[in-house]
C-alpha cells in the first residue's frame, strides 16, 4: 500500500482484490472481518463510515493482520473469536475453530434434553467448549460435563463457560475421553466431535487447517480410533434410552453405523449435513439392558 489516504472503502477494495489474487477464501468478507477487528467496530459500521480515513497506526495494525492471514493463519485466530450457535466463543491456536456443521450436532443433542427440567449431558473432546456451553446455555436446568485431553483446551473452555455465564453448570475435566469422570456419572446425552481425520490425510489439508492443533484432527490410521472409543465408552455412562450423538467424517458413515450396531445401540443411524454429506451419527442406549459394566 502506498502513502496516499486510505479510507475504509479503499482499504477494503484493495485488500479484497489482494486476497482474491492470492486465493484466500471469502476475500471481501475476510477483509471486512479483519478491518472491523482492527477498528474495534462491526462490519455494518464499516459501511456507515466508508469515507473515514484510517490512522497510521490502524493501517499498520491492519497490514500486519493481512500478512498473517496471507501466511495461512485462520481469520478466527487473528480476531480471537468465532460465532457458534449465536454466541461468541474465544478461540486461539489452543483449540479447533468451531465449524458451522457442528451446530447440527448441538441441535440434535438438544432434542434429548428436557426444556423445562433438569438434564445431564457429557461432551467428550470439548475443545473450545462450544458444544457443552451451547447445551447449557440453551437448557438452563441442565448440568454438563466436558472432557479434553489438552490442558490448554480445557483452560480455554473454562474461560468460555465463564464469559458466557454457564460456568456454574459446565464442568471441564482434563483427561482422555471418559477417564476423568466420577465413577457413578450417568448422562441423558453423550455428545462428541472427536478428531476423525486419518493421520495420513493431515499433510494434505489446507494451510489454515494445519494451523489447528494436531490433537484436534488426528483420528489415527483410519480416522476412527477416537470414534470407536467414544462408541464403546458411551454405552457405560448413558442412562437407558439416552442418546449418543457424534460428528463424523463424510466417508465414515457405513463404518460408524456398523460400529454402533456392533456395540449394541438401538436405532443406530447416520445423518447428512446441509451439503448432503454424512456428518452425524447416533445411537440410543437400549432401555431393556443396563449400561455395560
Ligand atoms: C475436533 S476437536 C473438537 C472440538 C470441539 N468439540 C468442537 O466441536 O469444535 C477434537 C478435540 O478432542 C480433543 N482430544 C483429542 N484426543 C482426545 C482424548 N483422547 N480425550 C479427550 N479429548 C481428546 C482435542 O484436544 C480437541 O480439542
CATH class of the largest domain: Alpha Beta
Structural class designation: alpha/beta
Beta fraction: 15-25%
The name of the CATH superfamily of the largest domain reads Vaccinia Virus protein VP39
CATH topology of the largest domain: Rossmann fold
The pLDDT mean sits at 96
**Proportion in helices:** 25-40%
Q: What count of structural domains?
A: 2
Q: Please give the oligomerization state of what you see.
A: single chain
Order of helices and strands: HHHHHEEHEHEHEEHHHEHEE
Fold topology:
Blueprint: H1 8-21, H2 27-38, H3 43-48, H4 56-70, H5 75-79, E1 81-84, E2 87-90, H6 102-111, E3 119-124, H7 130-138, E4 142-148, H8 151-163, E5 170-174, E6 187-192, H9 207-210, H10 214-217, H11 225-237, E7 238-247, H12 253-262, E8 266-272, E9 278-284
Parallel strand pairs: 3-4, 3-6, 4-5, 6-7
Antiparallel strand pairs: 1-2, 7-9, 8-9
Helix pairs in contact: 1-2, 2-4, 6-7
Concise structural overview:
With 293 residues, the protein is α/β, with parallel strands linked by helices. The protein is built from 12 helices and 9 strands.
Can you put this structure into words, describing what you see?
The structure is a single chain. With 293 residues, the chain is of the alpha/beta class. It has 2 domains: 8-71; 82-284, Vaccinia Virus protein VP39 (Rossmann fold, 3-Layer(aba) Sandwich), CATH 3.40.50. 39% of the residues lie in helices and 19% in strands. The strands form 2 sheets. Strands 5-4-3-6-7-9-8 form a 7-stranded mixed beta sheet, sandwiched between helices. Strands 1-2 form a two-stranded antiparallel ribbon. A hairpin with a 2-residue loop joins strand 1 (81-84) and strand 2. Helix 2 (27-38) packs across helix 4 (56-70). The model has no long low-confidence stretch (mean pLDDT 96). It binds S-adenosylmethionine (SAM). S-adenosylmethionine is lined by residues 95-96, 98, 102, 125-128, 130-131, 147-150, 153, 176-177, 193-195, 215-216, 226. Pfam families: MTS (PF05175), PrmC_N (PF17827).
